[in-house]
Amino acid sequence: MLNENPAQPIEPPEGSTALGTGKGGVGKSTVAAHLAGESAASGQRTLLVCVTGQDDDDLGIKRFGRGTHPTNCPTVMDGEGLYRAIHDRTPLQPIREVRPNLDVVPGGPRVGEISQILMLRMLQEGPGVVMSLARSLAPIASFYDRVIFDSAPEDDALEQLVLASAKYLMVPTRSDTSSIGGMERISKNFKVVKQQANPYLEVAGAFLYGSNRSATLMHSAVRRQIRKTLGEGTPILDEIVGYREVPARNARELGLLFGEYAEMLPNSATKYDVKAGRATEAEVVPDSIVPLAKEMRTLNQEIFDHCRKEA
Ligand SMILES: Nc1ncnc2c1ncn2[C@@H]1O[C@H](COP(=O)(O)OP(=O)(O)OP(=O)(O)O)[C@@H](O)[C@H]1O
Ligand SMILES: [Mg+2]
User: Which of 25, 68, 261, 271 is positioned for an S-S bond with 251, CB 3.0–4.6 A?
Assistant: First the structure.
């Protein structure tokens, strides 16, 4: 039976921001988690919605049991909560207080199955299905001052679902050609969603992530390429978070944000402790966490500023 349900726009919550680009591994999840953490730490009630098939658990929800799970449903982990909300057309049920003021709808493998539901429903209901996430968010949106979306790369249906729910798009990229190419994909999805479903959507900016901070000539070339792909007027952020593999990896392993991990530095074991057998390598907090945390914080502030400017 046909059920007419055109893409009725729903105005996304003020300050709702999606991190997205068509390429994997460029820093979307890391930046989304930090942006949400920074927002919550500043006293804003914040919701992080992870529309990703992979749960990186940057906030230690799964591995360290952080946050309070909703009691009236079986599980929301591994993307199950997001899947259920879309499948059953019910409001999102976040995990509460993962940090003070921070609630999270976690991603995970079940999110990958949402595309199939959307494709099937598309046949019966038409383009309105792209609003599925926006509809599940709407009943709880007023509870939050800011909503951050993490998105999945290389899946147009999921990318469009996120773009239909957010007010601002922030595009991270690395400097390699395939990351730049990934922006073409988000650019296409942006145009389609803005035209057909979410006229409120704006590109708030793009930024180069995880790069050698002193390679300024290369950065200028990348900025030109970003503008060519996303449009000449695209704001490009100044801050470039450096490529710092060890602290980034350790922080994720511990389910800590960079700033939280940096706080462990004064009490960290040293290389001498490791040599003397008093500690393991994993217990040594690298000094490089300090600049990494600082750069991420600056980037987060810049992202908030650009979204405010767009508003
Ligand atoms: N500043 C950094 N320097 C080095 N490595 C980093 C940095 N920030 C994050 N990483 C690491 O880079 C990898 C990719 O980051 P992330 O998972 O945030 O990317 P993504 O775009 O979300 O990837 P996917 O598309 O697979 O979801 C991760 O292993 C992460 O820990
Ligand atoms: Mg990711």
Answer: 261
Ligand 1 pocket, residues with Cβ under 6 angstroms = 24-30, 52, 54, 56, 153, 210, 241, 243-245, 248-249, 252, 292
Q: Measured from the CA of 23, which atom of ligand 1 is nearest?
A: 25
Q: What tokens does 275 get?
A: 């040599």
The tokens for 230 are 């996303």
Q: Where are the domains of the chain?
A: 17-310
Q: Report yes or no: 209 and 243 within 8 Å, Cβ to Cβ.
A: no
- What's the CA-to-centroid distance between 271 and ligand 2, angstroms? 32
Q: Are 34 and 157 in contact (CB under 8 A)?
A: no
Ligand whose nearest atom lies closest to the CA of 24: 1
Per-residue DSSP letter, 212: -
Instruction: Give pTM, 2 decimals.
Output: 0.95
Residue 174 has pLDDT above 70, yes or no: yes
Give the architecture (CATH level 2) of 17-310. 3-Layer(aba) Sandwich (3.40)
Q: Helices in 142-288 by DSSP H: which ranges?
A: 156-163, 177-196, 216-230, 245-254, 258-262, 271-275
pLDDT tens digits for range 143-171: 999 999 999 988 899 999 999 999 999 99
